[in-house]
Design goal:
about 170 residues, mainly beta, 7-stranded mixed β-sheet, two-stranded antiparallel ribbon, 3 helices, 9 strands
Length: about 170
């Protein structure tokens, strides 16, 4: 995912808009695998402030994920705001050198920065809907699709031994 900043490089106050769409490869995080069900669509407004280049916009895509409750696959939409700071090496302060994307050339590959934002926006656990009932703890049936006949007797594990105890009269 590349953008060309030649137009804003030369003039302070210059602004340019980018609308970029690209397919990203599947990736793994820990034990989970993710793939994109839609291309990554990035809209950016890039402004040269003379000291740095301020970037703002949005990132939109969809991921194929597995629900953490019912284990069914579904498409998870991502619509994120994006803000970044880019700098020209000759004008970069020490602070900018640590956090900003350095613009060595006019054409800049922003794929890694966009990917980082996508990963940071992922929830700890994906849920297909707020109403998802998950799986039965006893038989494993998907409670969104069927009702199981298991008893829903929930016993606090600290008192489980008392269930076996019989009083002597």
């Amino acid at each position: 995912m590349k953008v060309n900043v030649a137009q804003v490089r030369r003039t302070s106050g210059e602004s340019i808009h980018f609308d970029v769409v690209e397919n990203f490869s599947p990736f793994e995080l820990g034990t989970e695998s993710f793939s994109f069900s839609a291309p990554v669509h990035v809209q950016l407004q890039v402004i040269n402030t003379n000291k740095a280049v301020l970037v703002s916009g949005t990132i939109e895509t969809e991921l194929k994920v597995i629900c953490g409750r019912c284990l069914e696959p579904f498409d998870y939409p991502l619509n994120l705001p994006y803000q970044d700071e880019w700098a020209f090496p000759a004008q970069a302060t020490e602070e900018l050198l640590e956090s900003a994307l350095l613009l060595e050339k006019d054409e800049v590959d922003i794929s890694q920065r966009i990917f980082e934002q996508l990963v940071l926006a992922l929830p700890m656990k994906f849920v297909c809907s707020e109403e998802c009932q998950g799986l039965c703890l006893t038989c494993g049936a998907n409670l969104n699709q069927t009702k199981c006949s298991c008893k829903e007797e929930v016993i606090d594990p600290r008192f489980a031994a008392l269930a076996k105890w019989q009083a002597n009269d």
